[in-house]
Amino acid sequence: KMIGVTKGYEDKVSVEVIDSEKLQELGMNLFHGVGRGAVVPPRAVIVNYKGNPDSDEVEYALVGKGVTYDTGGLNLKPTGYIEDMHGDKGGSVAVIGALQGALELGIKKNVVFACGFAENAIGS
To answer: Which domains does the chain have, with CATH numbers?
Structure first.
């Protein structure tokens, strides 16, 4: 979804996807560890929005947590809690919404939008 929001705005954004292997190379082992057991490996997505082409200065940065589903690992959550464990993605959803707003409104600021995405489930 985050990358999809940037379609049509390629002249204003650059996108970097940090895959599971690169997360480990960068020493982001805790983040990598959360999602390493899932079918879809963890990754981070960084979108650099260039709203002010006359400046290289980044004026704002928004960072969001995107644990898309959190079982606690091997389904460690008790009954009554597991059904709603998709709430840990709220930070990333807010960042994606802000990115979409910045693009559609054409704000004149340089902003970095970054999200880490992982699923905390084993063999899901």
So the answer is: 2-121 (3.40.630.10)
